Amino acid sequence: MSAPAIETNGLVKTFKDNRAVDGVDLTVPPGTVYGLLGPNGAGKTTVVRMLATLLRPDGGEARVFGHDVVREADTVRSRVSLTGQYASVDEDLTGTENLVLLARLLGHGKRAARDRAAQLLEAFGLTEAAARQVKKYSGGMRRRIDIAASILNTPDLLFLDEPTTGLDPRSRNQVWDIIRVVVAHGTTVLLTTQYLDEADRLAGRIAVIDHGRVIAEGTPGSLKASIGSGTVHVRLRDGAQRPEAVRLLAAVLGTDVQTEADPVALTARAGVEGSDRGAAEQASRALAALAEAGIVVDDFSLGQPSLDEVFLALTDRPIPEEVPA
Length: 325
Ligand SMILES: Nc1ncnc2c1ncn2[C@@H]1O[C@H](COP(=O)(O)OP(=O)(O)O)[C@@H](O)[C@H]1O
Ligand SMILES: [Mg+2]
Prior knowledge:
Bound molecules: adenosine-5'-diphosphate, magnesium ion
Order of helices and strands: EEEHEEHEHHHEHEHEEHEHEEHEH
Mean pLDDT: 89
CATH superfamily of the largest domain: P-loop containing nucleotide triphosphate hydrolases
Radius of gyration: 23 Å
CATH topology of the largest domain: Rossmann fold
Largest sheet: 6 strands, mixed
Number of helices: 11
């Protein structure tokens, strides 16, 4: 059996008295996308920086393809790539100039460097922008050229630290397509994200991290089965009917119903494990039950659970405030 792409045991990193990473155990199988999901300040980047040998752990251990990140840092470094760290793109150069320059620095011959640059620009949908300066790229194009630069030499393990944060939906989709292409070529990807839907779409397994600790780990399916695959949001015409609506929804959905500060609003998780019906069918039954009871509904929607809802389900409290540095 081949070694895991990443294996950590009790990994710790402390900044002064802040245990930013507080005993993390991870096992990442090779050839997959592994999602590290957590809010701002959870410790995701600190984990990545230790795995990429940029930061020395204060406790525990970490191995990348069986190599210790401290004792065998050079070997680890030869097998990994971190977007925006090892490969930095120059804003004043064009897409082609950047990739050719970096390929030459990595030891490719002139011809091979030009070929590799053209191939990546094509694969990442940047051929038309190839001759344009990177400072004129959109946010989505910029993320794509960053990823292209980090895989000039196909790494065995690629760290993508929040590659889509702040991007519009179309650009996010393009970055997702690229991640799929990278993995199809055999690279293992450690993806950090604040979006459950992103981890759900791309990752084979997900670890949810909170205050430097893994609070849940598993496949997206198992995670969603424990927290619900959807969330029902309801707004009533008349707040006086809310207690009755809460009772009905709890009975139909089989989950707790949250009342919100807004006196006509309710939310509840749907599609939780143990129910034999899917979230959409449960939601439509809930809506029918409200109508039958004469409760007027002004707005009703079924959405993916947000990271807030994941945290509420896993920890019984909202997303933590970031610890002030
Ligand atoms: N270089 C640093 N010096 C001091 N504190 C840091 C440093 N890097 C991160 N931290 C703190 O460690 C915690 C985790 O940060 P980080 O790993 O960046 O979280 P995430 O990437 O999940 O947003 C935060 O409380 C952050 O303020
Ligand atoms: Mg971060």
